[in-house]
């Protein structure tokens, strides 16, 4: 409601996620943002992963280095609940929307950007604590129109010192592992050709500290997979690191700054934000469909008309 009032008043908006907690509210806000954009008023959703430099680098690598398309994404988020007492608002679905809505939207948005499309169906489960009945684990499997499969696991069951978060992205001829829910380290290992090596080498000019090892002609020139032959003779390993676990806070801050800079640039140029209202609506639609799939045990189609 506050975001819509701001837009109607001609004010630019940086909106904290989630975009909304019901489908009706999400549709209403997206329509308000679309109408406001015609008058030059900008709304940016604070999906911080969309502004993380490692994920932006990954998007470049998957597009320019001859890898891909993305076949599989696995996201494992063993998160802390050390400060989440049983009466915390996080556990109250009427307030937070639940794990898929309150937390999952970050990862739905980033995954959609990486795959390059929105998912078509979702299956999901939610698990409760025996002693409190709180939903503290949520798992969703998304299928994309291209056939890409993505699994998202969020478990709020760990002490802070025992948190573990990682992503695994299968690009066919390469695998990428990303560490941290705020990504702080990326490793790409795979096989490519001469043009791929050149593209990876060019990617090292990004502001992210990175290094690459190349073993040329490490195996036979051609390889066959999925019924397709590829010329991939060179083994490569690329590492990009924002500074390890100690860099988590600064990486988060930098992503928020990047969202604000994006908003300012969109005001100035009129272009569409990286994390737009359309993306906000899409991620909430996915999150609510995942919640429904967990509740009903059915495979749920995903679309803008999905009920909450």
Could you walk me through the main structural features you see in this protein, from its secondary elements to its overall organization?
The structure is a single chain. This protein has nine helices and 14 strands. The chain has about 300 residues and is α+β, with helices and mostly antiparallel strands. Strands 10-13-9-8-7-3-6-5-4-14 form a ten-stranded mixed β-sheet.
Q: Helices and strands in order, then pairings?
A:
Layout (H helix, E strand, L loop, with lengths): L1 H7 L4 E3 L7 H15 L5 E3 L7 H12 L7 E9 L12 H4 L2 H4 L1 H12 L5 E8 L6 E9 L5 E10 L5 E7 L3 E6 L5 E8 L1 H10 L6 E6 L6 E4 L2 E4 L2 E8 L6 H22 L7 H20 L3 E2 L7
Parallel strand pairs: 1-2, 3-6
Antiparallel strand pairs: 3-7, 4-5, 4-14, 5-6, 7-8, 8-9, 9-13, 10-13, 11-12
Helix pairs in contact: 1-2, 2-9, 3-7, 6-9
Features:
single chain; two-stranded parallel sheet; alpha+beta; ten-stranded mixed sheet; 308 residues; 28% strand; 9 helices
Order of helices and strands: HEHEHEHHHEEEEEEHEEEEHHE
- The overall pLDDT, averaged over residues, is 92
**Counted beta strands:** 14
- From the helix content, strand content and strand pairing, which structural class follows? alpha+beta
Ends distance: 18 Å
The fraction of residues assigned to DSSP E strands is: 25-35%
